[in-house]
Every structure is written in structure tokens, then in C-alpha cells.
């Protein structure tokens, strides 16, 4: 089943789901190498325009694909995603492959070790195509803060693909990869998924190892799966989640049955909460329209809709912008130009201290500097209690709001982000406007529970994708997939095709 | 260089009371580092014992060393501290090249152990109680070597070399409460405290606590206040005072210096000071105009440490006898004077002697060999007694060979020499060097006959009743047998052959 003129299997694997690709390889319909080559060809064809990737690891991808083909030929059992290509956010270390975190300060650094997540992907036979663009150190909601230039939203290349994981989301939406990895500190998986019409999941904090994930804010950072379908996300979730002794905050408990849930979508009899604080000023009309339709759909599918109030959520953004910068000011201290990465001004006349200062001045972008300064200030003696201390109290209140809510409902739904993709440059000089993109996603990071974004239609006013957020309690990630799969199936039936089919050709 | 006015120690004490605070860092002897699996062995090639975690590479995360926590709890218990039911690590943020993450993972307001004390005994037997503020866990930094400067200090250096083998080695920092009331004995108390702490740490088996190896390091804080005043004076912080003698000297010097400044109407500046081994003085380091802001906050990469109370109790009941109590017990059991016991302690011979007794030797013999021949050889080689390549079991075997008559003292010394030279255990050396006493009558008889034949005049004297002259013949026998003869038996045979009653 291969087109003899292009060498690309037919049907085109770049248009297939991860599940279908894995099945096709397992069934011998095409090889992992053919699949990898098809995706590498797609990257060659479109990524100049999209700029989803910072680094394409052609040789590594083909070698991984060949290994899968050899294992299959030898009759060895293959994992559920063996041979499926994946776009890896450039925040996870990859032995021998550059890892920049979207920053100049790590330009040219070749990590000597694999992140636990990277290792799990490799062990599962997943084919890592390359490393995707991101806001520097995952700080941003548009990928404009990347030191290596912005990424375009495949729905409209003049608009942002969300952030910080804009590269991963754009790779999915432009058919360059069926799977991607993101990290979510305040919404960096879910918000890009929402604005690109893809699926993104922030698992429960501690579900996916952070070992080898370059830290932004340790108590909030969480890696997770990005895909075009709920089932694909679940398959990837199962590969990357699980206890890791190298990460002390990793949960030592079985991974919730996410794949089974994704295969058995249903909201029948579920109580689903709608939070009053997740609407109001700043929410785009078309976003709210699609959200309200989604709630109606859930009710039609047999869910009981419950109105809830979570009053502390209004303070989440403020708390987040104290906690995350505080932690990052400490986490980023190690980038001093002495041991790895960029070094500036080492001309034999300067002290180590001066070289460190020059390196950080040159190596960090403005948003990173803003947050490092904010965090340094918030942790300073005399200010600690008022800022960091108060923020931690708000964090506790938010967790309590969630606890109370989950006493009444099984999951909560909201818009993922208040607006559709905004034009590149529109909010670049207005950090507060940028921060508002994460209004609905941040509470889950502060509380450490699990949340998903999946497409719920296009906003009537601009024809751009709108995301529906589903929030579940910690360690109940399977509920996201059960509800998500039901919503996806119902919308799919209504639209007659996956939403990404409506994106313009590149 | 500013001139430092010192007043005499006696004059200083006439006007002021010293107040001390001692901060001791102990490197734990765990096999691996505090937050990663790297080896803690000393002396390896620079940077050969490192990994992404202790190098602070992007993405790397710490995992707490359970043995490190257990050691910390045991130290806390031995210092009569309360043990935290729940405590966290904290990040101490500051930039320094020998610290790979530019923060030290430490503990701040939630130490694992707090509110304890250590009773220390001065040489005259007086017991002084030193109150413990806290003991907390942290990690060591790497080591900088400044090249090209005159003094090895960073000032004037052309460049620096960094070795991260030490980075991440577990440390316990033990901080005393202000030590007041020691008066003129302050230097002695400081020394005795550090010595007692070192013994305690060793008795727990959590560290060798060798100060010369940097496994135990002391900072001495000192201030003076006029007699009768409650309020403490401004303190100086003398860093890295790294021997018992230096601790004593640093306190003494700072007392004299502070008194000099205060007596002439000056004020003490709060500063860190460097200690100089060569003359026992201190010089100004960094002035602390305001407290350094380390921006401590709870370490988010680690989960809280919550020692199970039942486990803590288990550790408490399994603590070894406190060193001071043990010393006093052994002194009584062995019937030693305080002075004799002090010689044992000064030689570092207590544990080897105990082990030798446990291996079967009697106390007097064990003490004789460790304080005599072995102490002499350790001294010659400039090493600690325990560093000699001989085990207490081997020493006990030597003592046994002497008591059963196989060796005399002279031969025994040769056996020890052989063991130290790596020729094997005592029995192997005896066999290898042919050192056993010659006491079988055949071989000895020949030597006796030869001695009599070679010294007819002396033999006649003996025959004539001058029994004491037999000593010369015994000497000849011993000489002929190169000391291996059983001297008593040789004397018997000589007298027998010459027909005299001994």
C-alpha cells in the first residue's frame, strides 16, 4: 500500500491517528521507517512556514523507526505506540540531541542524559522526530518568547499557536506529528491545544516524572500528552506516566486506566460542574457560545449540570505570578555560564561573577528576566510573608475550593482560554494581557489536579478553534478521558469530520 | 594590614565574660551523596564522582539519601534533641561557583533536630553542659582551587579550578546555643566540646569526623560582654577552624582581640574572620553590614521528611553508650588514673585497646602495645594509630603469643614490624621470619654447650658458686640464637650443666 512515485504509504500516515499508525505497523501495512520518512517529508514541506521545530533529529528518528521494524521482523512484542512519530517539547533532555528550552542560554548544549520521559518514549518504540519550539523556559502563552523566533498557528500563520508549548501544538495541527509532548505549569499544554484545535492533557501533578525536564516552577510543572484525538492522548499518557524513583514528587501509585476510559466515553449519570468564576469580562463571545453549547451537549448526553462557585479562583492568577517566579528565580540560578551553555565575556580579564552577570544578561530574554526579578523580590526577607507566604495561602484556598467542588461533581468544565488565537505581536508588550490567557488553566496547576483541553468548535466571529477544558480530581485522570471521548464522539458526529480537517492547507 | 591590639588573656577576663557560639559541620560517612548515587570516597580524580544531579545539570532532581536522614536523627538523639515530626528541606540561594545549582539544599526554620545538649568533661573532670540549638541536614559544596595567587585565596588568583566531587556530600550542621558562663575556661570548653562532639559522631559510626580531612569543620563565633551585663556584645565569626588546638587558640585570640578593641573604646564590627594556623591569629574577612539575604524557601523538588516516631524510638534505644560515660566506665574497669586514661585518649588508643581486649588480650597487654610500640611507629610515620596496617585482632594474637611463651617482647616487636610491613598476620610473620622462641632442649642445649665452651672462665665462676655470673652465659646463648632463645630455660640448662642449684 505504498505510492510508488512518492514512496509514501497510502493512505498518508501523516493524516492518521497514532492508534491507526501503530495498528498499521503492527499489521505490516507499512513500516515504521516509511511512517517516519513521511513525517520528515511533511516537516520539510511545511515547517519553514510553521516553525514548530527547533531541531529535527532525522538520523535519530530513522534509527528508532528501523529498530521498531527490526523488532517486528524478529517477532518481538511491540508497544501500543511502537513506531509512532512524536514531537518532543524542547524542555526534556535528550542524550546527544540539543536541548535549549527556547533559550539562548542553553544554545549549543548537548545533554549527557535522557529525561525519564524521553527514556520511556524510547523504550516504548516511539519515534522522536525532533524538539519543538516553546516560550523561553516555558514562560509565556504565545511561543513569542522563544529566543529562536515565533511559531505560527497552522489555522492562521499570523496568529500565535498558544504557549508555552506552541511548537508541539502546531506540529500536531499541521500534520507534522500525530503525537507531541508538552509541559503545563500554568496552562502550557491546554491553552495551545485550545487555540490549535488539538487535545492536550495536564496529568495530575506527580503523574509524569519531571526528571530531565528543565525546571521552570517545580511545584507546578507537569509534563503531559498532546495529540489530535482523545484516545491518542490516552495511549501516550499511559506510556509516559508512572512512578519514577528519580523524582521525589512522583506519585507511587498505579496510573489511572486512561486508555480504557478513552475507549469507553460516556457522561451518562455524571455530575458536571460549571464554575461561575470562569466567565465574565474578557471572555470572547464566540468562545462562550461554543462553551455553552458544550454544556448543553453534555446535558443531552445524560450528564447532570451543577452550577458551582469557587471564589478563590479569582486570586489564582495573582498567586501564580508570585509562586512560579519565586521558584524560577531559584531554578534558573544555575545558568551562570560556568559549566554548560552560553558563556559571555570570558576574556581573561573578568571575574567569574562578571562573566555570570554578562552571560545572564545576554542569555535570558525579557520575560525570563522579568520573572526572575519578580521572584527574587518576592522571596526577599521582609517581603516573603507578604508575597510568597500569602500566595501559598491562596493556593491552599484554591485546593479547598476544588475539594468542595469535587464533593458535588465528578468533573468541572470551562473554556480552556478566554479567547481564540490572537495575532502575533498583539500582546507582546502587555504582559498582563498575556497572563490572562491562563485564567482558567492556572487553578488546576496550583491545586495539582488533572485537566484536559479538547476542541469544541470554531468561534463564529473568527473561525478559529475553541477549547473545552475538563478538570478532574487528582489521580482521577481517567475521568478526563471518559468525558473527553464522549464529547469528541458527539461533536465528531455533529461535524461529520475531525475539526482539524477544516484548517486551511499550508 | 591594621595593627591588632591584644590585651593579655588574664586582663581580658578581668573585665569581660566571653560568649561563644560554635557551628560544626560534619560530613557524613554515607556511601553515596545526599541527593544522588555518586560515591563520597575521598581522593578521587577531580570531577570523577559527579552526575547530572550533583552537577546541577538542567532537569536533574534530588532524591534524599535515607541513610543521611537516619544519621541526622541519630546525631540529634545522641545530642538529646527533639526530633521533628515533619520537616522540610529549604533552598539557601546565593551565587558561588563551587555550588552547581547556585543554591544549597539545606534546612531553614524546620531543622530535623533541635533543643538538645552535650555534656563535656574538661581535663580536670569538671563537666560543662553545652546547649544545642539545632542540627540540620544539608549538602556540601564543591571545592575551588585558586591558581596564581600568593596565598591560595581568590584575591590575586589568575584562575580557579573547580572540583565537584565534594558537591552534594551530606553534611550535618550542629549549632550550639550561646555558650555563657565558661569564663576563663572558654577556650578549653570550646575545645572539649568539639572533641566530645567528634567522639560522639565517631561512636555513632556516622562519620570518621577527621578534622584534618575536612570531615569536620568548625566556625567559632565569639563576643564579649562586661561582667554583669545581660546583653551580648557584637560577635565575630571565625570560619574554618579545623583542629582542636585551633579551636582553643581561636577563642583565646578573639577574646584578647575583642578586649583590646573594647578596652580602647572601639566597637567590634560584625564580620567573618580567617584563622591562621601558623600563629593562631585571625584576620578580617568579609564585613557583614547587613544580614545576607539567602531568600530561603521550602525546596519544592523534595517531599517533607516525616520520621516515624516508632522508628525514632528504635533508633533512640539502639544508641551506643555516650563516649564520656563509656570513657569513665572503662577507666574504672581498667583501674587507671585520670592521667593514664588521658594518655590513652590523647594517643587515640581507646577504641583499638577496647577492640584488642575484645579479641582476647588482657587490658595491660593491649594498652602496652598500643601506647608503646604502635604509638611510637604511628608517631614516626605521622599517622593516626588506627591508620596503622594492623588490626586489634592481630595485636591480640601477638599478646597471646607472648603470654604463652612463644614470643618474648623483643621478638614480639619484630612480629609487629613484620605485620606492619605487610608480611601477613602474626603467625605468618613468626613462621616467615622464624621468630619463635627456641625452647626445645636439643637446639638450646647445643647453644648452651657452645656458650660454656667459649667462656670457660665464666663457667668456672658459676661452678664456684657465683650463680649471678650465669647471666653472662645466658647473654651469650641469646646472642648466638639472635634473641630467639627462651632465656629462662637457657639459664636452667646452664646451671644444670654446671652442676649448680639455681
UniProtKB/TrEMBL annotation, chain A:
It catalyses: L-glutamyl-tRNA(Gln) + L-glutamine + ATP + H2O = L-glutaminyl-tRNA(Gln) + L-glutamate + ADP + phosphate + H(+). It comes from the Bacteria. The active site is at residues 89, 164, 188. One of its GO terms (cellular component) is glutamyl-tRNA(Gln) amidotransferase complex. InterPro entries: Amidase, Amidase_CS, Amidase_dom, AS_sf, GatA. Residues 34-480 form the Amidase domain. Its EC number is 6.3.5.7. The keyword Ligase applies. PROSITE patterns: AMIDASES. GO terms for molecular function: ATP binding; glutaminyl-tRNA synthase (glutamine-hydrolyzing) activity; transferase activity. The keyword Transmembrane helix does not apply. Heterotrimer of A, B and C subunits. Allows the formation of correctly charged Gln-tRNA(Gln) through the transamidation of misacylated Glu-tRNA(Gln) in organisms which lack glutaminyl-tRNA synthetase. The reaction takes place in the presence of glutamine and ATP through an activated gamma-phospho-Glu-tRNA(Gln). This is Glutamyl-tRNA(Gln) amidotransferase subunit A. It comes from Streptomyces alkaliphilus.
From TrEMBL, chain B:
Residues 351-498 form the Asn/Gln amidotransferase domain. It comes from Streptomyces alkaliphilus. Belongs to the GatB/GatE family. GatB subfamily. This is Aspartyl/glutamyl-tRNA(Asn/Gln) amidotransferase subunit B. Its EC number is 6.3.5.-. PANTHER family: GLUTAMYL-TRNA GLN AMIDOTRANSFERASE SUBUNIT B MITOCHONDRIAL AND PROKARYOTIC PET112-RELATED (PTHR11659), GLUTAMYL-TRNA(GLN) AMIDOTRANSFERASE SUBUNIT B, MITOCHONDRIAL (PTHR11659:SF0). HAMAP family: GatB. Heterotrimer of A, B and C subunits. Keywords: ATP-binding, Ligase, Nucleotide-binding, Protein biosynthesis, Transferase. It catalyses: L-glutamyl-tRNA(Gln) + L-glutamine + ATP + H2O = L-glutaminyl-tRNA(Gln) + L-glutamate + ADP + phosphate + H(+); L-aspartyl-tRNA(Asn) + L-glutamine + ATP + H2O = L-asparaginyl-tRNA(Asn) + L-glutamate + ADP + phosphate + 2 H(+). One of its GO terms (molecular function) is transferase activity. The keyword Transmembrane does not apply. GO terms for biological process: glutaminyl-tRNAGln biosynthesis via transamidation; translation.
Amino acid at each position: 500500500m505504498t505510492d510508488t512515485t512518492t514512496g509514501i504509504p497510502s493512505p498518508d500516515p501523516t493524516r492518521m491517528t497514532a492508534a491507526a499508525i501503530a495498528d498499521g505497523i503492527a499489521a505490516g501495512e507499512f513500516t515504521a521507517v516509511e511512517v517516519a520518512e513521511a513525517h520528515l517529508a511533511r516537516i520539510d514541506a511545511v515547517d519553514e512556514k510553521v516553525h514548530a521545530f527547533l531541531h529535527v533529529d532525522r538520523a535519530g528518528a530513522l534509527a528508532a523507526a528501523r529498530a521498531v521494524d527490526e523488532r517486528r521482523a524478529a517477532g518481538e512484542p511491540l508497544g501500543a505506540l511502537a513506531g509512532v512519530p512524536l514531537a518532543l517539547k524542547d524542555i526534556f533532555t535528550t542524550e546527544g540531541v540539543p536541548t535549549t528550552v527556547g533559550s539562548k542560554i542553553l544554545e549549543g548544549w548537548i545533554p549527557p542524559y535522557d529525561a525519564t520521559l524521553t527514556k520511556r518514549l524510547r523504550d516504548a518504540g516511539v519515534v522522536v522526530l525532533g524538539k519543538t519550539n516553546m516560550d523561553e523556559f516555558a514562560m509565556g502563552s504565545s511561543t513569542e518568547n522563544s529566543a529562536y523566533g515565533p511559531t505560527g498557528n497552522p489555522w492562521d500563520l499570523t496568529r500565535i499557536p498558544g504557549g508555552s508549548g506552541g511548537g508541539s501544538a502546531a506540529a500536531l495541527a499541521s500534520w507534522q506529528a500525530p503525537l507531541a509532548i508538552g509541559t503545563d505549569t500554568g496552562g502550557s499544554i491546554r491553552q495551545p491545544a485550545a487555540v490549535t484545535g488539538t487535545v492536550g492533557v495536564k496529568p495530575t501533578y506527580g503523574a509524569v516524572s519531571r526528571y530531565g525536564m528543565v525546571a521552570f516552577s517545580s511545584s507546578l510543572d507537569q509534563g503531559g500528552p498532546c495529540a489530535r484525538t482523545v484516545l491518542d492522548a490516552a495511549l501516550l499518557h499511559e506510556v509516559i506516566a508512572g512512578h519514577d524513583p528519580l523524582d521525589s514528587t512522583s506519585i507511587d501509585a498505579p496510573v489511572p486506566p486512561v486508555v480504557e476510559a478513552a475507549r469507553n466515553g460516556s457522561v451518562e449519570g455524571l455530575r458536571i460542574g460549571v464554575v461561575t468564576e470562569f466567565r465574565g469580562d474578557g471572555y470572547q463571545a464566540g468562545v462562550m457560545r461554543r462553551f455553552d453549547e458544550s454544556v448543553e451537549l453534555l446535558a443531552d448526553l445524560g450528564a447532570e449540570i451543577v452550577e458551582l462557585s469557587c471564589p478563590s479562583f479569582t486570586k489564582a492568577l495573582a498567586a501564580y505570578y508570585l509562586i512560579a517566579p519565586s521558584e524560577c528565580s531559584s531554578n534558573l540560578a544555575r545558568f551562570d555560564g560556568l559549566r554548560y551553555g552560553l558563556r559571555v565575556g570570558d576574556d581573561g580579564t573578568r571575574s567569574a561573577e562578571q562573566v555570570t552577570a554578562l552571560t545572564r544578561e545576554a542569555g535570558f530574554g525579557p520575560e525570563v528576566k522579568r520573572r526572575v526579578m519578580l521572584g527574587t523580590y518576592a522571596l526577599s526577607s521582609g517581603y516573603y510573608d507578604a508575597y510568597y507566604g500569602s500566595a501559598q495561602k491562596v493556593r491552599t484556598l484554591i485546593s479547598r475550593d476544588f475539594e468542595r467542588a469535587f464533593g458535588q461533581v465528578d468533573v468541572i468544565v470551562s473554556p480552556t482560554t478566554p479567547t481564540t488565537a490572537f495575532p502575533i505581536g498583539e500582546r507582546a508588550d502587555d504582559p498582563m494581557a498575556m497572563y490572562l490567557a491562563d485564567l482558567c488553566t492556572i487553578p488546576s496547576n496550583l491545586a495539582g489536579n488533572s485537566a484536559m483541553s479538547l476542541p469544541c468548535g470554531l468561534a463564529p466571529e473568527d473561525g478559529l478553534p475553541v477549547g473545552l477544558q475538563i478538570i478532574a480530581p487528582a489521580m482521577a485522570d481517567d475521568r478526563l478521558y471518559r468525558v473527553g471521548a464522549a464529547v469528541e464522539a458527539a461533536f465528531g458526529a455533529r461535524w461529520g469530520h475531525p475539526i482539524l480537517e477544516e484548517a486551511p492547507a499550508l | 594590614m591594621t595593627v591588632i591590639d591584644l590585651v593579655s588573656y588574664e586582663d581580658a577576663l578581668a573585665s569581660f565574660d566571653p560568649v561563644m557560639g560554635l557551628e560544626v559541620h560534619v560530613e557524613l560517612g554515607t556511601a553515596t551523596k545526599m541527593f544522588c548515587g555518586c560515591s563520597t570516597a575521598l581522593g578521587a580524580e577531580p570531577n570523577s564522582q559527579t552526575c547530572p544531579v550533583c552537577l546541577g545539570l538542567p532537569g536533574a532532581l534530588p532524591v534524599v539519601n535515607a541513610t543521611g536522614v537516619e544519621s541526622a536523627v541519630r546525631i540529634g538523639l545522641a545530642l538529646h534533641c527533639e526530633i521533628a515530626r515533619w520537616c522540610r528541606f529549604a533552598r539557601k540561594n546565593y551565587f558561588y561557583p563551587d555550588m552547581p545549582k547556585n543554591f544549597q539544599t539545606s534546612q531553614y526554620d524546620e531543622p530535623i533536630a533541635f533543643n538538645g545538649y552535650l555534656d563535656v568533661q574538661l581535663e580536670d573532670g569538671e563537666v560543662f553542659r553545652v546547649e544545642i540549638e539545632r542540627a540540620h541536614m544539608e549538602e556540601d559544596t564543591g571545592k575551588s582551587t585558586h591558581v596564581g595567587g600568593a596565598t591560595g585565596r581568590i584575591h590575586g588568583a589568575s584562575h580557579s579550578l573547580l572540583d565537584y566531587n565534594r558537591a552534594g556530600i551530606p553534611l550535618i550542621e550542629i549549632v550550639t546555643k550561646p555558650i555563657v558562663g565558661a569564663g576563663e575556661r572558654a577556650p578549653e570548653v570550646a575545645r572539649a566540646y568539639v572533641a566530645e562532639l567528634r567522639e560522639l559522631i565517631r561512636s555513632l559510626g556516622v562519620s570518621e569526623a577527621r578534622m584534618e580531612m575536612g570531615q569536620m569543620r568548625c566556625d567559632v563565633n565569639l563576643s564579649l560582654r562586661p561582667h554583669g551585663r545581660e546583653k551580648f556584645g557584637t560577635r565575630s565569626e571565625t570560619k574554618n577552624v579545623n583542629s582542636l588546638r585551633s579551636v582553643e587558640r581561636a577563642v583565646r585570640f578573639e577574646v584578647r582581640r575583642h578586649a583590646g578593641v573594647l578596652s580602647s573604646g572601639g566597637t567590634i564590627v560584625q564580620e567573618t574572620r580567617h584563622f591562621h594556623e601558623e600563629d593562631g591569629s585571625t584576620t578580617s574577612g568579609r564585613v557583614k553590614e547587613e544580614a545576607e539575604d539567602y531568600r530561603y524557601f521550602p525546596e519544592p523538588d523534595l517531599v517533607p521528611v516525616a520520621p516515624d516516631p516508632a522508628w525514632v524510638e528504635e533508633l533512640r534505644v539502639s544508641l551506643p553508650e555516650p563516649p564520656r560515660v563509656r570513657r569513665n566506665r572503662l577507666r574504672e574497669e581498667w583501674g587507671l588514673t585520670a592521667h593514664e586514661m588521658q594518655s590513652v585518649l590523647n594517643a587515640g588508643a581507646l577504641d583499638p585497646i577496647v577492640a584488642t581486649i575484645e579479641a582476647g588480650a588482657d587490658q595491660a597487654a593491649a594498652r602496652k602495645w598500643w601506647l608503646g610500640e604502635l604509638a611510637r611507629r604511628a608517631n614516626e610515620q605521622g599517622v593516626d594509630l588506627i591508620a596503622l596496617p594492623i588490626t586489634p585482632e592481630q595485636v591480640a594474637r601477638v599478646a597471646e603469643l607472648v603470654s604463652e611463651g612463644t614470643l618474648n617482647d623483643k621478638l614480639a616487636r619484630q612480629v609487629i614490624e613484620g605485620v606492619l610491613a605487610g608480611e601477613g598476620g602474626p603467625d605468618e610473620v613468626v613462621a616467615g621470619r622464624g621468630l619463635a622462641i627456641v625452647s626445645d632442649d636439643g637446639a638450646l642445649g647445643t647453644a648452651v654447650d657452645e656458650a660454656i665452651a667459649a667462656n670457660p672462665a665464666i663457667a668456672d665462676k658459676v661452678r664456684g658458686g657465683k650463680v649471678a655470673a650465669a647471666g653472662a652465659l645466658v647473654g651469650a646463648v641469646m646472642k648466638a640464637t639472635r634473641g630467639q632463645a627462651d632465656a629462662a630455660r637457657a639459664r636452667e640448662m646452664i646451671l644444670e650443666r654446671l652442676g649448680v642449684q639455681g
